[in-house]
Amino acid sequence: MSNALLTDNVILKETMMSLKNNLVFANPKNVTTEYSEEFAQKGAKKGDTVNIRKPLRYEVTEGATLDIQDSQDQSTPLTLDKHYHVGMAFSEKDRTLSIDKFRERYIDPATIALANKIDSQFAIDMKNSVFSAVGVPSASALPSTLKGFTYGKAQMSLLGAPKGIHSAVVDPLVEASLVDGLKGLFQSSERIADQYESGEMGLAGGMRFMMSQNVPKHLSGAVAGTPAVKTTIVAEGAVAIAVDGITGTISNCFRKGDVIQIGGVYSVNPQTKQSTGVLAQFVVTADTNSSSNEIASLPISPAIYLTGPYQNVTAYPVDGGLITLFGHASNYASLTVPQNMVFHKSAFALASADFELPTEGVQASRVVDKDAGLSLMMTKQFDIVNFRNIVRLDWLGGWKCLYPELAARVVGQPT
Predict the structure, then answer these.
(1) Which of 126, 209, 280, 376 could form a disulfide with 201 if both were Cys (CB 3.0 to 4.6 A apart)?
(2) In angstroms, rounded to a whole number, what is the distance separating the alpha carbons of residues 169 and 413?
(3) Is the pLDDT assigned to residue 4 strictly greater than 50?
(4) pTM, rounded to two decimals
(5) What is the mean pLDDT of the chain?
C-alpha cells in the first residue's frame, strides 16, 4: 500500500514548528509578540502600522497642595515592513515521503533560511537602537566570564528594568569562551554534565544564555582627535548635538549604532530621578561625516530630558564636554566587534500578520500560531512543463525596539 500524500496543512504546521525552533533573537520566548493581534485582520498589507502607547510617567509632589500634572503620552510606531519568502519546488512523488523525511529534505532547509533572515535583520535593527554598552570593545579579547553580562544587567536595572530572568544572546566564539571558563557555574549540578556534552549554555546570573550565529558585528566610526560638544544644549527633547575637536574631514566619522558618552552628563533612575553615578549613553542613529574638524548635527537617541517625568540626565551637554566612543575619544575607532546582547522580554516587539489568501490560479493555505504571534502562508502551483509543484512560503511582519533601556550590548570583557 502506498504512503498517504502529505497535505498542505500538515506541511505548514511542521514548517511553523521548525521556524519557531530556529529563531533565537526573534524567538517568541524572548520578545513580546502581543502586538501581532493588532494586525489580525483579513488582508494585512506591507506598510500597515500600529502605534504602541507607552506607559505614562508622573512625578510625586510633597505636601497637601494638589499638583495636577498634564499627561504626556508617548507612542512608537510598529510597521509591517518586512516581507520575506522562500521559493522551492518538489515533485508529487516527494509528497509520499514520511513527514520526518519531508521535513529533513525540504522544510528544515527552508525554515532555517527564513529564520536566519528574520533573526539577522532583527538583531541588526535592535543593535542600532540599544544605547547601553558595557565592556572594552575588542575583536579578540572576548568575554570569558559573566562580568560583562552581569554589568549589562546592572545597567538595565539602573534604568528601571524589571526583575526576572533576562535573555542573553552571544556570538559562537563568545559561547565557546564562556562555556569553557564557566562550565561549573551554568545550571544546577545535575545539568552540568548535559551542558558539557552539548557544548551549550543555560541559566546563569539570572540570564538565559543562547548562542546565535546572527549576533551582529558592529564597525565603529572612524573618529579621530578629541571630539567635544560645540554648542550647549538648552532645550528639552534634543536629538542631535553639534561636535567639534575632530581631526579633519572624515567619512563615517560616527556610524549608526555607535555608543557615545558626554562628559558631565549622567543618567538618572526613571522613577526617583536620582543620578545613577554612571555617564549617560546615547546611540548614534545615522552614519555621519565630519567636515573641517566639525559635525554640525550628530543625531542621537534617546532624546535628552533634564526635567519632567521623562527626565533621563543630570545636566544638559555643555560646550566643551568631551565625547567618547565606547568609552574613549578614539581608541575604539574603526573596530569590528561582536555585539552580544542582554535584554528583557519587553524590550523588543515582533509582529506578524496574515496575508489575504489569493484565490486565482494557485492553491493557498495559512497557518497561525497565536501563542507565538506568527503567521505563514503557503501558495502552490503545478508546473506542467517540468511536472513538479512550485511552492512559496511567505512571512509578513515587523519589529520595534520598544524600550531600549531594557537592553544592553556586551561589546567586550570589562576591566
Answers:
(1) 209
(2) 15
(3) yes
(4) 0.88
(5) 87
Q: How far apart are CA 178 and CA 161, in angstroms?
A: 25
Copy the grid coordinates of residue 34: 502581543
Strand partners, 166: 207
pLDDT digits (tens, 9 = 90+) for 30-87: 998 876 666 665 556 677 887 776 666 666 778 888 877 776 667 788 888 999 999 9
Question: Per-residue confidence at 1, pLDDT binned at 50, 70, 90?
Answer: very low
Q: How far is CA 285 from CA 110, 131, 346, 352, in A?
A: 33, 10, 21, 25
> Which has the closest alpha carbon to 301: 347, 242, 256?
256
The closest alpha carbon to 321, from 298, 289, 344, belongs to: 298
What's the pLDDT score for residue 411?
A: 96
Which residues on adjacent β-strands are paired with residue 288?
254
Burial track 145-158 (b if 16+ CB lie within 10 A, e otherwise): ebbbbbbbbbbbeb
Answer yes or no: is pLDDT of 191 > 60.
no
